[in-house]
Amino acid sequence: PYGGAPTPIFKIFPDGTCIPFSDPIVDPDALTVDVNGDVFVGSYGGVITRIDGSTAVKSTWLVNSGLENIDGLRFSPAGDLFAVAIDSSRVHKINPTTKKVELFVDLNGVGITGMSGIAFDPVTNHIYVASPLENIIVELDTNGSILNTLVVPGFLFIGFIDFDPTGANDGFIYIPDAQLGQIYKVDVITGAATLLIDQIDPGPVGLIFDPNGVLYFNKNYDQVQQGDVFRAWNMETILPPNPYLGDNVNVLFRSHY
User: Fold this and answer.
1) What distance in Å separates the CA atoms of residue 47 and residue 232, rounded to the nearest whole number?
2) Cα 222–112–45 angle (5° rounding)?
3) In 13-161, which ranges are E strands?
4) How far apart are CA 256 and CA 41, in angstroms?
5) Long-range CB contacts for residues 168-171, cutoff 8 Å, separation at least 24
6) What digits encode the pLDDT tens for the residues 213-254?
7) Residue 121, class by beta-carbon neighbours within 10 Å (0-12 exposed, 13-18 middle, 19+ buried)?
């Protein structure tokens, strides 16, 4: 998706079927979906595009808002949209009704210069943001106060992060390391990391749970086999490279419906 190239958004079904979902969007680097099934896409330049979940019609939802190049988007349990950027230490909160953008927190004070991953703990509603540059994860409360900083020794490149939504693994966050080719389960209190999958080549970048607690990931977007999407527990390829995706898979997101 980088470099300004228009890239379509695709819909991937549980059986691995893949179809184009929308017209191309320039640099679609962050995706999320609201409770109505509408897709929100963040791009370089701080632009957010909305794609109607039923008709696939896209429209510019937010532009010239002061947002940086968007690398992570997630809706909070309260319904607000949060955005993070790889070239910024700031987390922004967006009111989905008024589209008002406000600074939620600036993490420059804890040494973060850029972020890609953002996730919400389904138990506490706390916000977790990950920096692939410093390889740390910061826990924030719902007011933006810093509660904890997780530094997991040995990590080289933390990508996108997620929690198991089923409650079966409460207290743990799941983290891919694109350079090490590994996926870890990390205790959000102690930072203790358990290696779940090793020797993924190329390394994993996108990572997401489905509503049933099945973990999916895709391989590093700047290497071969980028079009692969895997179920993590048995390494089953559900979406092999195909003429639709080519080598442009970057971010996975979970549908609410």
Assistant:
1) 32
2) 55
3) 18-20, 25-26, 28-33, 39-43, 48-51, 58-62, 70-75, 81-85, 90-94, 101-106, 117-120, 127-131, 136-140, 146-151
4) 16
5) 168/213, 169/213, 170/122, 170/123, 171/123
6) 877 777 654 433 334 454 444 444 444 444 333 333 444 444
7) middle
What whole-number distance in Å separates Cα of residue 136 and Cα of residue 120? 16
Residue 38 CA, chain-centre distance (Å), reads 16
Are the CB atoms for 67 and 46 separated by under 8 Å? yes
pLDDT tens, residue by residue, 79-96: 999 999 878 889 999 999
DSSP symbol at 127:
E
Contacts of 169 (CB under 8 A, 6+ apart): 163, 185, 213
Cβ–Cβ < 8 Å for 133, 113: yes
Tokens of 36: 């109505």
For residue 109, give the 3-state DSSP assignment: helix
| Sheet order of strands, 28-33 included | 28-33, 39-43, 48-51, 58-62
CA dist 143 and 99 (Å) reads 19
221 touches 205 (CB < 8 A)? yes
Q: What span, in angstroms and rounded, lies between the C-alpha atoms of 173 and 205? A: 15
